Amino acid sequence: MAPNHRMMLKADINRFYDDEYYSEQKIKQEKFFVRPSRQRKMKKTKIFSIGMGIDLPFCVIILILLTIGTIMMFSASYAFSYYTQGDSYYFLTRQLIFIAIGLFAMCIMSFFNYNKLHRIAPIVLAISYLTLLVVLFLPSDSGVKRWIPLFGGFNIQPSEIAKFAMILFFAHWASKYYNKMQFARYSVLPGAVVFGTTAMLLFLEPHYSGIVIIAILTVLMLYIGGMKTKYLFIGFALMVVLVLILAVTGGLSYAMSRMDGWGQALIYTDEKMWQTTWQTRNSLYAIGSGGLWGLGLGQSRQKYLYLPEPQNDFIFAIVVEELGFIGATIILLIFALLVWRGITLSLRAKDKFGKLLGIGLTSQIGIQVVLNILVITDWLPNTGISLPFFSYGGSSLIMLLAQMGIVLSISRTANIERQ
Amino acid sequence: MENNGKIHKNSKKAAKGPNQRLRQRTAVLIIMILVVGFGAAIARLGFLTIVDGSTLQEAAVAQQLKDTTIPAKRGTIYDSNGKVLAESASVWQVVLSPIYFENDEQREAAAKGLSEILELDYDNVYEKTTQESYYVVVKRKIEAEARDKVLELIDELSDEYDCGSVVQLLDDYKRYYPQNDLASCVIGFTGSEEQGLEGVEYQYDDYLSGTPGRIITAKNAQGTDMPFKYEQSVEAEDGNNIYLTIDETVQSICEKYMKQGIADNNVLNRGVCIAMDVNTGAIISMVTVGGYDLNDPFTLPEETKKEIKKLPEDEQLQAENEALAAMWRNKAITDTYMPGSVFKICTASMALEEGKISDNTSFNCTGSMTVSDKTIHCHELGGHGSQNFVQAICNSCNPAFIQIGQLVGMNKFNQYYQGFGFSQKTGIDLPGEAEDTFWADGEMTEVDLAVASFGQNFAITPIQMVTAVSAVANGGYVLEPYVVSKITDSQGNVIKNVEKTVKRQVISKSTSDKMNEILGYNTATAGATAGYVAGYKIAGKTGTSEKIGSKVISHFSEDYIASFCGYAPADDPQIAMLVFFDTPSGDAYYGSQVASPVFINIMSEVLPYLDIKTEYTESELEYVDVSAGDYTGISVSEAEAAAKADGFTTTVKGDGEKVIAQIPSVSSKVPTGGNIVLYTDDSSRNETVMVPNLVGYSPSEVNNVASAYGLNVSFSGASDTGVVSTSQDIASGTTVSPGTVITVSFSSSATFND
């Protein structure tokens, strides 16, 4: 125990919240996550460390995904951008600006002591509520209120903030009351209250896919936070009941309209349905056209206005069309590597908060990737779940990279232990 | 706080510690996300790309690629001398890409404009504008005039409605038949899609049609081409050219006289004329009279239309279709008929070949003959008496041929029937060939054999008859008739050359020679009634068959088919020809009266055209026409001397010193010893004479009358045997210049043989 204490910087706050610290034996147990050679390299490489290294593999994976994602976003948006904006580089230029801002944010966050977030978690949640409320009172053309416009045509999406706020809050809560989490009033009750209120606000937007992700994240955070498994099942049952009630009262009409034609994209029933399923159908056409090896980078045909907004949620369909099943699988494996690395490095964090926060933030990426693929392949209704690092969009990308910065920050403190 | 030490010591067994619990739950989480979640995603992608890949890709390609068809130019059809009979010329087609229409206003404007210019139904065109398609053909084969109007419409549409690119003009081809109705039943015609529907156009459609090309352009969802060129074009491959064996000149000669024959004899059910090269089987001409304009094959003759209009309305459409089918029907190969006495050529050949008879075998005819209790009459009711084989043919005596048939016997008769090719289709390369109607094995009775011997009670096609007669003429070889001699590709390289196909030899060369001799003798002795053409040795046989079993429509007690089949020259046969009139309803119905004169007229033009050597007998020379020389521009005495040297007499009109004009004109046909009128001044040229009646006289009488009037006579069908003039080409009472040549046709005054 003692060496750990000596090596720590500004980490006394953890002692205050956390129930335990790693023992030396514990660190030995975790050796299989860190290769000895890596450790030596870390000591020499000072670019990302000020005496303490961030997890370089995790950082490299992020940069790889970001590079591939940007290239593919450019390829996918090229034609759409040309036809709608008159400039093939419109989306690329903006995305590159977002990436610059996002990388800056990631850098900042990686130096930022994530433990400070512990205290401000309730404040972040409050901000999240505020933005979710504000967005409801902003004018909207389509009747769907998801965006808060900022300067220069940039928008922020309150649901992106909400996702982060949920993970942060539950990490904060579960680490604070880790030993009491088996009691329903410390786990189920706050979970129900926070999720319920957030979900209600999202429901009013409406943003059902946001609710789905937040529900999954809530359950995930409470589960790893130590909630009894039986509540998990009870929670599932309750959610089913809730959905049924909404269905009966007609509140699900919008979601149902989005689900219209779910799994029916290739079957012609009537003209209206054919138009409704246009995007999903063309996504399937794109994926099918890709075959095993793809048509080649930049060779997608479906991006020529067949697949609406190919730079957004359906970008991966174009990726499959151009790079084929092999290319898509490689990209998914890189994502899996990111998730694996993120979760395992988070486990090495010396405090419960760091572990839970890191796992939550990394899992969110994995969950979004899986949901996105299932949507574009018509296994889930077309609900609008973006693909991290690939989909075009300022607020989500910046949020994403900032969150990755937090994970890197966690890795930084985790590495301190080893040094 | 849990006991740390316990966990450290039994880390694998202790599951309750908070860290251990987090680890376990994280492991579950990783499994859920990475194994279940990513696994499902990859599996789903694998299914879609690999299992469903090809179907999805096909659907994607279908919506991404704009496929435009480039029509291929259909091959040209030539006659045997390279004269164009059918040709495709460049025209245009109007196509729509209705998917580009943005609103109904545009659709209505386009539909209205197009329906007016192209004379189409508005609703029909409007329906096409509502289709979700990139390529809808509005009208094909529009000509330059309509094209210009469409171009104007396109300008108007793009100016006023901003939808000019919706209407497009693409290349197209239209079939033209420069000879209109010539050889219509052989050439056939094409439908709206340039597909062959009848005749050679149908039979050789695969060769003629070529391969249409395509332009495949990738397009975006709005239907415009993508900014990056993706274009694949497959050139249209033009169709092959076809050379027919049909000679346009011979064909038009045949058609001319066949039409005349139909008119002269009020033939009710069309006529057929087939001319075949006896040595190769090539069809030189094939006429079904009552042809149709190939440029307008769907229009019936006015009379037929009127008759159809008389019918109740609900029957009109069917009647019209039936009338069209009847009009297109190639009677020469699609209809069967009873050959009648023409078939005696075959009966005689088989008897000779089998050695059952010789020239001197004698037959007795009492005017009728009884076979199995059934009495069969001869056309000569009084009987021909005792006659030898050659006389029996010349008399066309039925009882004699019944006896010949009996000598041959039923088995041999059947064998030869098959041998001559009557039991099979000839295999001519034209669509719709019919099969014969004959007694099935074992069903033939003695009576059947008796009537079959002179060509009654079984039916064959005209093409089978002419093929069999060719075999008799050419040394016994049954050939496969054909109308296409050569196929070349669009560059002129020969793809296919058709040679003669010999099916079998049915009779020996000696029998063939014998038949040529006998039939030549028949024609020479019977004269005009049996196809006599001055200067040529013709072999032939007339035929008059009764049409049994159908409603009588002529004014005779029965309907007849009058036919003549012959070939020339008899000593070295080159061309065989069948002339055939179905149901004459004029003055006569005998083959010798109806078909033979037409045969003579055709042959007298065709044989010189084919450069077949003439051999005149002395008496014939008297009537042979020669060409008048040029006697103008020289002095009167010189002209008279020149004309005399050419074998003409002269009459000088006027007081001038030089000949300024002559009648008959230079190179025109003038009978040997004819009179040339030489004009020396203009005033004398106004002199005219009235044409006298020249019908009903013998050749010498005609000559005398004509000379008295200062006119020349060209003798048609005249021979030294008893003939009388039956017609003159310039009617009596017409005013003509002296010296004008009047063609007078002669016919035998003797009794008409069957």
Spell out the blueprint of helices and strands.
The complex is a heterodimer of chains A (419) and B (754).
Chain A: H1 2-7, H2 12-17, H3 24-29, H4 36-44, H5 56-85, H6 90-111, H7 115-136, E1 148-149, E2 155-156, H8 158-176, H9 184-204, H10 208-224, H11 229-249, H12 253-259, H13 271-276, H14 278-290, H15 315-347, H16 352-376, H17 394-418
Antiparallel strand pairs in A: 1-2
Chain B: H1 4-9, H2 18-51, H3 53-64, E1 65-70, E2 77-78, E3 84-96, H4 104-117, H5 122-129, E4 136-142, H6 144-161, E5 167-176, H7 184-187, H8 199-203, H9 205-209, E6 213-218, E7 231-234, E8 241-244, H10 248-264, E9 271-277, E10 283-288, H11 302-310, H12 313-328, H13 331-334, H14 344-353, E11 362-365, E12 368-371, E13 374-377, E14 385-388, H15 389-395, H16 398-408, H17 410-419, H18 446-452, H19 462-473, E15 477-479, E16 484-488, E17 494-497, E18 502-505, H20 509-526, E19 539-546, E20 560-568, E21 575-582, H21 591-609, H22 618-621, E22 625-627, H23 636-645, E23 649-653, E24 661-663, E25 669-671, E26 675-679, E27 689-690, H24 699-709, E28 712-716, E29 723-728, E30 735-736, E31 741-748
Parallel strand pairs in B: 2-8, 23-26, 28-31
Antiparallel strand pairs in B: 1-6, 2-3, 3-4, 3-5, 6-7, 8-16, 9-10, 9-21, 11-14, 12-13, 15-18, 16-17, 19-20, 20-21, 22-25, 24-26, 27-30, 29-31
| Poorly predicted segments of chain B | 1-15, 749-753
CATH superfamily label of the largest domain in chain B: DD-peptidase/beta-lactamase superfamily
- What is the number of independent domains of chain A? 1
- The share of residues in helices of chain A is 55-70%
Describe the strand arrangement of the main beta sheet of chain A, using strand numbers: 1-2
State the name of the first-level CATH class of the largest domain in chain B.
Alpha Beta
Q: How many DSSP E strands of chain A?
A: 2
Rounded average pLDDT of chain A:
80
The number of distinct helices of chain B, counting runs of at least 4 residues, comes to 24
Give the low-confidence spans of chain A. 1-51
Number of strands of chain B: 31
